[in-house]
Amino acid sequence: MSRKLRTLMAALCALPLAFAAAPPAHAADPTTMTNGFYADPDSSASRWAAANPGDGRAAAINASIANTPMARWFGSWSGAIGTAAGAYAGAADGRDKLPVLVAYNIYNRDYCGGHSAGGAASPSAYADWIARFAGGIAARPAVVILEPDSLGDYGCMNPAQIDEREAMLTNALVQFNRQAPNTWVYMDAGNPRWADAATMARRLHEAGLRQAHGFSLNVSNYITTAENTAYGNAVNNELAARYGYTKPFVVDTSRNGNGSNGEWCNPSGRRIGTPTRTGGGAEMLLWIKTPGESDGNCGVGSGSTAGQFLPEVAYKMIYGY
């Protein structure tokens, strides 16, 4: 074998290693593979409106909330996660719509807040769960919000717990990149009032942001789109300065029509925000939290549990009082 041929063969053999070292990226754009966003016919708002047709609030809740495309949240309550995620993505695909799914089952979930505490029984159990989640979606187009609160919720965690959490998130991204090539995954970055932009940029990067499509803001919160957009841009400035890249971001606008009054847990006087759409200062404005679903046993949801649909809260949120 000539020296030139040996050199060529060596270069060809090295190519897979070079490609493997690079962070994977999705070439497909799920927004161009579908015709609009998927409105979940089995959302808590839809189920309540269908079960209470004679209630004077039902028509408004059905028109203003239930028929708006929103995310569906998946966790331990979802049963066999591969089957559940696959059925939901498949139902949306059958209608040529883009579904938004929220993965919310990380080990030690809401460890410092507590209202939504729970999650997988161990890091290994979570690794299995998220792998099945990604495998259920498979090649169907989808958007996934990965583990809300997971990177903002560090206040009471020790360094070993933080490292453990970041490793779980990094592995989750690996699973989606391997198994769900038409899914855009957004790592959750909390909100502008939780961690400063430099801190959040570091947390995102250390948890594997390079492998994600982008990051999400304001999930289940009330802060204005303008404030979130400014924060998202600031996070990207930090990412560019420190690590040499930026990422698109999405904002949860489901309950930010009146902005925040400083309370995060079922505050009164809030209003639904801009319905799900592309653009608007971010890559997408999404309804990730269902308006009317409780944040926990607090505020105007006193006596409720996190995720419980409260029709009176939903009704008042339509009108902002």
Automatic annotation (TrEMBL):
Its EC number is 3.2.1.-. Pfam families: Glyco_hydro_6. Residues 1-27 form the signal peptide. One of its GO terms (molecular function) is hydrolase activity. The active site is at residue 149. Keywords: Carbohydrate metabolism, Cellulose degradation, Disulfide bond, Glycosidase, Hydrolase, Polysaccharide degradation, Signal. Gene3D superfamilies: 1, 4-beta cellobiohydrolase. It comes from the Bacteria. The keyword Disulfide bond applies. It is an enzyme of class 3 (hydrolase). The keyword Glycoprotein does not apply. InterPro entries: Beta_cellobiohydrolase, Beta_cellobiohydrolase_sf, Glyco_hydro_6_CS. Belongs to the glycosyl hydrolase family 6. This is Glucanase. It comes from [Kitasatospora] papulosa.
